[in-house]
Amino acid sequence: MNTQSQKGSVPLYAALILFSAVFLFPMYLAVVNAFSAWNTTPGLLPAGFHPENFKYAVTMIDFWKFARNSLILLAITLCTSTFTSGLVGYAFARIVAPGRNALFMIVLSTMMLPGIVTQIPQYILFHNYGLLDTFWPWVFWGIGGNAFYIFLYRQFFASVPKELEEAARIDGCSILRTYWNIFLPMSLPVVATVAIMNFQGSWGDFIGPFMFLKQDHYPLATALSTISYTQNGSKLVLQSVTTAAALLILLPVLVIYFLGQRFIVEGIVTTGVKG
């Protein structure tokens, strides 16, 4: 039986290895070309070993200024959207009010509307209020929350036993204090999930900063897409340096993903065991 089981798992492992190779192939090309010489075209094999490309990636443009802008937008998104979505999800899950379910369905229906559709009306609105080339649009977007994040929070809070909430009310806790002291600490897996999604969405966003900000306020993703690495003002783009800069931008995403994935899995398993 053991031999047959091992033979039956061979195709499965072969398929997993094949799919892993397909997904890792772009990363392999990026690493190879990031260390290649400037005057070579991208290829499957490395053309030399030039780690100085990473040095040029952060010195040939104002890399750290754009990185600071990315961190500012990231901090705004994390501090607003993560908290506001949780508060709204808690209200939908635990506060009984007329029309609650209908309002929740309206919030969910906004998920079917592509974000790009609202870009032009938002641009006109922020232009009329003089908020272009500022970080205020991200503040308002964060305060407005996110329908998908609200759904995640609401589903989690709805599964919490009522006895905990009733015990908090008996002890004199208000609605906000019950949320802050009881529900929010219990929802760390959801908070981690929302924070990681916010990080990935904010760190790699191109369209929003390109439309609402000028070049001095661009984050890294937008700056790298609009500013070329050239030598001595020539029109020849240094692809190896550009690829090295792209890897530097990708590195925080990979680190956060792997660290956060472990936290999310452990948190969800623990929550499931507690019931």
Molecular structure report:
This protein is an all-alpha fold and 275 residues long. 73% of the residues lie in helices and 0% in strands. It has helices at residues 2-34, 52-59, 63-94, 100-109, 119-128, 136-144, 147-158, 162-170, 175-186, 188-203, 207-212, 220-226, 239-274. Residues 270-275 have low confidence and may be disordered. It is globular, with a radius of gyration of 24 Å. Helix 10 (188-203) runs antiparallel to helix 13. It contains 13 helices and no strands. Its main location: membrane. Keywords: Cell membrane, Membrane, Transmembrane, Transmembrane helix, Transport.
Topology:
Layout: H1 2-34, H2 52-59, H3 63-94, H4 100-109, H5 119-128, H6 136-144, H7 147-158, H8 162-170, H9 175-186, H10 188-203, H11 207-212, H12 220-226, H13 239-274
Helix pairs in contact: 1-13, 2-13, 3-6, 3-7, 3-10, 10-13
